[in-house]
Amino acid sequence: MLDQKQHIKLPEGSIEKNTTTLNLGPTHPATHGVFQNILEIDGERVVSAVSTVGYIHRAFEKIAERRPYYQVTPLTDRLNYCSAPINNMGWIMTVEKLLGLEMPKRVDYLRVIIMELARIADHLICSAVMGVDTGALTGFVYLMTYRELIYEIYEEICGSRLTTNIGRIGGFERNFTPAAFEKIERFLKEYPAALTEFETLLTRNRIFMERTQGVGAISAERAMSYGFTGPNLRAAGVDYDVRIANPYCSYQDFDFSIPVGTTGDCYDRYQVRNAEMWESISIIRQAMEKLKGLPDDVYHADVPAYYLPEKKDVYTKMEALIYHFKIVMGETEILPGEVYHSVEGANGELGFYLISDGGRSPYRLHFRRPCFIYYQAYPELIKGSMLSDAIVCMSSLNLIAGELDA
Amino acid sequence: MSLTNERIQQRLTEKFGDVLTGFEEPFGMLTFTAQKDYNLKVMQFLFDDEELRFRFLTDITAVHYPERKGEELCVVYHLHNFVDNVRLRLKVYTPVASPKVFTATSLYESANWMERETYDFFGVDFVGHPNLIRILNVDEMTYFPMRKEFPLEDPMRTDKDDEMFGRGGHF
């Protein structure tokens, strides 16, 4: 199993194992989530790894089979909790696709804004944590300030910060307030400077480059075979992005590029994520510009049979009360059918495979969780590398335990 | 988009004939059913063929239809051709009494965990899988929880009725 360059040397005839078994996780502080890997290490070198997953499995797919459609959204929050709005929107758009609902442009643009903010929030955590794992805490502190600004925007729009449950089938629960737009403007104004500073700290930092270049590299063919999507696949040089390949939510109206890497190593993943943050900032700016030309009171489609009416209308208007009752009691007509819809989540293609039998809740709902699929490449990525590289490699993959275990 | 659904269907029917049935296009995605011994052959053909090039496995999952006697479990594959940007959905039905289908791990590395997950929740036995053990549930579990015979709540409860879920009493 081991070559001659083995580090642990045992005396002739020893019955001891010539590798050390190291249990990394499930609650190791450097794994950023409940990930367990049983490593066979020879000195500092990883010989093999066995991943164990499922520590926070909560059976969302089963629970979804007993929940009305509008109550599935909070479950999706808890998948990739670093970018919950993307999951919410992905699920809502899946149902809208099944129902054949068309959204007004303004709803699409508001959704684009919120999804791109979520993408920035997710990427900045991942890039900053890579810095932390290579020994540079400073950048992390800089960027976390700005995640706070994003969370304040969420709070202004939907009232919560982490598990957002943002949006409803048919639009948003309420319009964006002027304060929300002010906060977005403030973020757009302040964040680029911070991101530039962060990049100045890390991108050409010799220590950071030594720690990440050539570490955890994967070729484009292997990455595709392992089902990589998102920034990890693009770092390997495949320009696949759901926003471009199958545009949803009016992404075709925006002008942006897909950053790609070449080697697929940790450094390229970091670079791709940073470049994507710049693209996201540009998309949000474009969306803010486009919103100026649209009526500012449209925040949902005119589909009373599916859109939960505002609470104050429910208490004062007969029609709203009737529709509210019908939606909550599952009296709305949902046609049988099967639909697959995917969005570009922050760490890859987040897909929803929904089968409806005409009942009140999905007959079957399957989440295509990107990091569940690409995490199986981890033992191959770290084989032969140092133990400290294995840690950096894990944080560069942007694994989110909640999404992995569903 | 140069590769159309009609063209894919035509190529597949030329190659496999009656093995593939039930061609339809819900929401624009070509969907068809293969006889259960042919799932790997069909996927291999879709992978190797220079025109079709379905070389990315998006997803594997299963669905349980208790009322379809003799073909209760449906294994669903979502494949993607990156070059022409076309997706398709392949279904294989298998009896719940001996749910055996061939593994796709020889074609796609990613199939490994997806098939383990499908086994874990539905008990589909992927023949030839290198390591078909539970993945998300505990190893001691003796049943397959996503099958429809396991209701989410206590079935003896009388205060809650599935009538409310539009399914007439029970499912």
UniProtKB/TrEMBL annotation, chain A:
<feature type="domain" description="NADH-quinone oxidoreductase subunit D">
    <location>
        <begin position="133"/>
        <end position="405"/>
    </location>
</feature>
<dbReference type="InterPro" id="IPR029014">
    <property type="entry name" value="NiFe-Hase_large"/>
</dbReference>
<dbReference type="GO" id="GO:0050136">
    <property type="term" value="F:NADH dehydrogenase (quinone) (non-electrogenic) activity"/>
</dbReference>
<dbReference type="InterPro" id="IPR014029">
    <property type="entry name" value="NADH_UbQ_OxRdtase_49kDa_CS"/>
</dbReference>
<keyword id="KW-0813">Transport</keyword>
<protein>
    <recommendedName>
        <fullName>NADH-quinone oxidoreductase subunit D</fullName>
        <ecNumber>7.1.1.-</ecNumber>
    </recommendedName>
</protein>
<dbReference type="GO" id="GO:0051287">
    <property type="term" value="F:NAD binding"/>
</dbReference>
<comment type="function">
    <text>NDH-1 shuttles electrons from NADH, via FMN and iron-sulfur (Fe-S) centers, to quinones in the respiratory chain. The immediate electron acceptor for the enzyme in this species is believed to be a menaquinone. Couples the redox reaction to proton translocation (for every two electrons transferred, four hydrogen ions are translocated across the cytoplasmic membrane), and thus conserves the redox energy in a proton gradient.</text>
</comment>
<comment type="subunit">
    <text>NDH-1 is composed of 14 different subunits. Subunits NuoB, C, D, E, F, and G constitute the peripheral sector of the complex.</text>
</comment>
<keyword id="KW-0472">Membrane</keyword>
<dbReference type="InterPro" id="IPR001135">
    <property type="entry name" value="NADH_Q_OxRdtase_suD"/>
</dbReference>
<keyword id="KW-1003">Cell membrane</keyword>
<comment type="similarity">
    <text>Belongs to the complex I 49 kDa subunit family.</text>
</comment>
<dbReference type="Pfam" id="PF00346">
    <property type="entry name" value="Complex1_49kDa"/>
</dbReference>
<dbReference type="InterPro" id="IPR022885">
    <property type="entry name" value="NDH1_su_D/H"/>
</dbReference>
<dbReference type="GO" id="GO:0005886">
    <property type="term" value="C:plasma membrane"/>
</dbReference>
<keyword id="KW-1278">Translocase</keyword>
<comment type="function">
    <text>NDH-1 shuttles electrons from NADH, via FMN and iron-sulfur (Fe-S) centers, to quinones in the respiratory chain. The immediate electron acceptor for the enzyme in this species is believed to be ubiquinone. Couples the redox reaction to proton translocation (for every two electrons transferred, four hydrogen ions are translocated across the cytoplasmic membrane), and thus conserves the redox energy in a proton gradient.</text>
</comment>
<keyword id="KW-0520">NAD</keyword>
<keyword id="KW-0874">Quinone</keyword>
<dbReference type="GO" id="GO:0048038">
    <property type="term" value="F:quinone binding"/>
</dbReference>
Automatic annotation (TrEMBL), chain B:
<feature type="domain" description="NADH:ubiquinone oxidoreductase 30kDa subunit">
    <location>
        <begin position="33"/>
        <end position="154"/>
    </location>
</feature>
<protein>
    <submittedName>
        <fullName>NADH dehydrogenase subunit C</fullName>
    </submittedName>
</protein>
<comment type="similarity">
    <text>Belongs to the complex I 30 kDa subunit family.</text>
</comment>
<dbReference type="Pfam" id="PF00329">
    <property type="entry name" value="Complex1_30kDa"/>
</dbReference>
<dbReference type="GO" id="GO:0008137">
    <property type="term" value="F:NADH dehydrogenase (ubiquinone) activity"/>
</dbReference>
<dbReference type="InterPro" id="IPR001268">
    <property type="entry name" value="NADH_UbQ_OxRdtase_30kDa_su"/>
</dbReference>
<dbReference type="InterPro" id="IPR037232">
    <property type="entry name" value="NADH_quin_OxRdtase_su_C/D-like"/>
</dbReference>
